Amino acid sequence: MPSDSTGAPVTTGAPTSSFPRTSSPVSTTTAAPAVRRAAAPAATPAPPKDGHLPGSRGYRRANLALFAAGVATFALVYATQALLPAISADLGVSPGRASLTVSATTTGLAVAVLPLSALSERWGRTRVMTASVFTAAVLALLVPFAPDLTSLVVLRAVQGMALAGLPATALAYLAEELHPRAITAAVGLHVAGNSVGGMSSRIITGTVCEGYGWRAAVAVVGVLSLLCAVAFRLLIPPAARFQPAPVHPRAVWDTVRGHLANPLLTRLYAIGLLLMTVFGGVYTVLGYRLLAEPFGLPESVAGLVFLVYLVGTASSAAAGRLAGRLGRRGALYTGILTAAAGLLLSVTDHLAAVLLGLVLITAGFFTAHTVASSSVSRAVVRGRAQATALYLTAYYVGNGIGGTLGASTYHAAGWSGTVAMGLTALTGAAGITLYATRRAVAAQRVARTA
To answer: Rounded to whole angstroms, how far apart are CA atoms 209 and 86?
Structure first.
């Protein structure tokens, strides 16, 4: 019996088994086939019955569109992270309070991602994703005018809620519209877009802030995100395999309860939460550490450190190949151990060692996150949007915990406190994966003796 990415036997069958085996998308019109062919746009041909194949035009357009959406998502979520020291100084608040401008956004995402993903079951994936990314980008243009910390935090929370319709719905869209063997690579490219967005946001804001202040820096990120939203809308292929379904709160709750009762999914959710606790904590307080002694870097130079995110871009895109060689559990172990090595290396006060540590932390995180998130969409055949929404809820809750706890431990014990917090979370993620591995081995022994 095959096993899932964390070791549990898979009994639900292939993810595509719930799709109707038709040779063309379902049409709601009664027009003659010749008329439909004449009226259909030539830009994106209908996908084959199993979804867009790797290398096809539809596959490339879907990847580029969701790459742009990923850039916008992380650029907006982390627009204030590199600016926390400047916000602290301008508004006269502590690092812990300034970090609320990041954790409020991720909390808003965590709260709204499940309801909006449920709405995508009724109104369509592309429609919900389009509304989310445009609304969040427009709200970003209002953020620079916040007069105080309270209004800034509220605006950032609403922005996170607006963004919530994109992440889980994007994963569900990929699972429905692409061929099964293309899903992991496509999710990796979407996550790579996340990393590019997070990197560009931090570099742009750090550079602009030094000359024009943090408000101008946030405004620039808003304009960048609006451009990404336009690119997404122009590129995304129509959802040919989506089947709308009525949204009943009781049915949604039953689906959610079923996912939460699935041991495989709950392990993946816990892994996502713990991974993001580490990543959120490290990058929330990184700016404070680089600006302080013994480094004393200027804001523009400290912002360039976030070029390390390019490592995340590469590792996300390569995660599918790594999982193919080592298996999903092997790729998870690799990511976790790589991030742990990076944390230990970053404890020193040598800038080169800190930068190398950040490279390892970033590569390890994005590798493990890509494998875990793609495993969720592969593990279910019904309620995919809710399954991925729950993963992202845990993921962004972890980010909020990591940001707040990381800032608090840094304020109390310095960087070593943040590292200790991160190692504790990684130990938990490794323990969950090890438990699943042992269960998979035991299941294989039973199967051989049966």
So the answer is: 8
Q: Measured between alpha carbons, how far is 73 from 133 in angstroms, rounded to an integer? A: 7
Q: Is pLDDT above 70 for 6? A: no
Percent of the chain with pLDDT over 70: 84
User: How far is residue 58's CA from residue 50's CA, in Å, rounded to a whole number?
Assistant: 13
Per the omega criterion (within 30 degrees of 0), is the bond before 95 cis?
Answer: no
H-helix or E-strand spanning residue 203: helix 183-212
Neighbouring C-beta atoms of residue 416, cutoff 10 Å:
12
CA 377, CA 117: separation in Å to the nearest integer?
13
Determine the Cα–Cα distance for residues 400 and 61; give it in Å rounded to an integer: 33
Residues paired with residue 3 on neighbouring β-strands, in sequence order: 9
β-bridge partners, 52: 178
Q: Which residue has the tokens 């549990």?
A: 8
* CA count, 13 A, side-chain hemisphere, 157: 12
This prediction's pTM? 0.67
Spatial distance between the Cα atoms of 201 and 181, rounded to a whole number of angstroms: 32
What is the CA angle 191-193-199, rounded to 5?
105
pLDDT of res. 3: 44
SS3 178: strand
Length of the chain: 450
Q: What are phi and psi of 99, to 5 degrees?
A: -65, -15
What backbone torsions phi and psi does residue 113 show, to the nearest 5 degrees? -65, -35
d(CA 349, CA 370): 31
Closest alpha carbon to 205 in 196, 217, 216? 217
- CB atoms under 10 Å from CB of 14, counted, come to 12
Tens-digit pLDDT profile for residues 138-186: 999 999 999 999 999 999 999 999 998 887 688 778 777 776 766 667 7
**φ and ψ at 187, to 5 degrees?**
-60, -40
